[in-house]
Amino acid sequence: MKFWKASCLTLLVSVSFAPTGAFADDRFTCWAPTAAQAAFTADYWTDERRRNAIPAPGLLPERGMPGGDVHSLEGTEVKLAPIKEAPFKFGGKLFFSLGGIDQAASAQFVSDDKIIIGAAHAMWLNGDQASNVVFYPGYDGAPGEAYPIDMASVLTAWTKIPQVPGLAAAAVDYAVMRSTKASTSGKFQLRLAKVPEKTELTLMGYPGRLDGGEYMFLEDPSISVSDATAYEAKPHPMYGGGASGGAWFLPAENKAFEIFSVVSNGSPSNVKGPHFTHETEEMIEYVKGGCK
Predict the structure, then answer these.
(1) Which helix (H) or strand (E) holds 222?
(2) DSSP secondary-structure letter at 89?
(3) In whole angstroms, what is the distance from residue 83 CA to residue 108 CA?
(4) Which helix (H) or strand (E) element contains residue 52?
(5) What is the C-alpha to C-alpha distance for residues 31 and 131, in angstroms, rounded to an integer?
(6) Of 30, 27, 34, 6, which Cα lies nearest the Cα of 18?
(7) pLDDT for residue 226
(8) What is the tens place of the pLDDT at every residue in 14-61?
(9) pLDDT, tens digit, for every residue of 152-207?
(10) Taking CA 239 as the corner, what is the angle to CA 236 and CA 242, rounded to the nearest 5 degrees?
(11) Residues near 285 by Cβ (< 8 Å), separated by ≥ 6?
(12) Which residues touch 143 (CB under 8 Å, ≥6 apart)?
C-alpha cells in the first residue's frame, strides 16, 4: 500500500477557480466544479484514473503513519462496512481533481436527496478548488452509477485559516455539494445537538491504506473531546488518507441515522471532526438553492 503524507501537498500545482460573484452569502464560498465541462460525464473517471487517484492526503502530519494492512489498533478493530445496508449505503467514494492531481475521499448524502457532505480539504486546499467532482454511492470495488457534482461550497472561514492539523481546522473542515441526480439509496439526517464525551460512535470511509481504498471500512471509537466547534474521538485505526469526509454517526432506534461530524484530521491515536451547527443547516439550504 502507498501512503500519502503531508509532503504530497507540495506536489499540488496552482489551479484556481474564482467564486461566482452572484453568490450572495459571504459566509460560504461556492463554485460550480463542472462549469468548465458543460458536457461532463463520468467518462473522465476511467478505470485507470480511478486506480491512479491518490487518497486525499488532506491535513496529515508528516510523521507517525503506520504501515501495511493494519486492521486494528489499540484494541479497536477496523471492519468492512456492510455497504448495502443503511446507513452505509448512504455513503460512497468521492473522486475529484485538486491542484492538477486526481484524488479520492469519502462522502455521503445528508438531509436532501441531492445534497452530499464531505471534507472541506477535499474540495478546497491551499487556494485550489476541486474540479471533475463525481460521487459514487455504494462504491464497493466498482463505481456503480455516477453522480456528478454541479455545486460545491466550503465555509469561507475555512479559506482564511491555516489549514494544518488540529481542532481549529477541524471545526470548519466540511464541504457541502449538490448532485445533478437524487439519491436512490437514502440519506443521513443532520444532527446539531452536541454529542457528549465518552459516547461510542461509528465512523465510516475509504482509507487508502486498506485494500487500496477500494472498499468502505468502519471503526467504533469514543468521543474524547466535545465542544461547541469540534470533536475528537479515539482511537483511529483507519488513519492514513482517503477516509476524509467519512461520516461520524449515531444509530437511532427508529433507524433515523444521524450524522454529526465528518473525518477531518488526526493520527493513529485520534481523529478530529467538526461539530455541525445551524450554520451547517443553512449552508445545506444555500447550496441546495444554487448558492443564491
Answers:
(1) strand 222-226
(2) G
(3) 12
(4) helix 47-52
(5) 9
(6) 30
(7) 97
(8) 333 444 445 579 999 999 987 545 455 567 888 999 999 999 976 655
(9) 999 999 999 988 889 999 999 999 999 999 999 999 999 999 999 999 999 999 99
(10) 135
(11) none
(12) 42, 45, 50, 93, 136
Residue 10, judged by CB atoms within 10 A of its CB (0-12, 13-18, 19+), counts as exposed
98-139: pLDDT as tens digits: 988 999 999 999 999 999 999 999 999 989 999 999 999 999
Percent of the residues in the chain that have a pLDDT greater than 90, as a whole number: 70
Which pTM value belongs to this model?
A: 0.86
C-alpha cell at 164: 494544518
Do residues 73 and 268 lie in contact, with contact meaning Cβ atoms separated by under 8 Å? yes
The answer to whether 124 and 175 have CB atoms below 8 angstroms apart is yes
Query: Strand, helix or coil at 53?
Result: coil
For residue 198 the three cell numbers come to 465518552
- Non-local (6+) Cβ contacts of 40 within 8 A are 34, 132, 148
Q: What one-character DSSP code corresponds to residue 188?
A: B
Grid cell locating 286:
444555500
Burial of 46 (0-12, 13-18, 19+ CB in 10 A): exposed
- Cite the beta strand spans of 54-188 per DSSP E: 54-55, 72-73, 76-77, 79-80, 91-98, 101-109, 115-118, 124-125, 128-129, 131-137, 147-155, 175-179
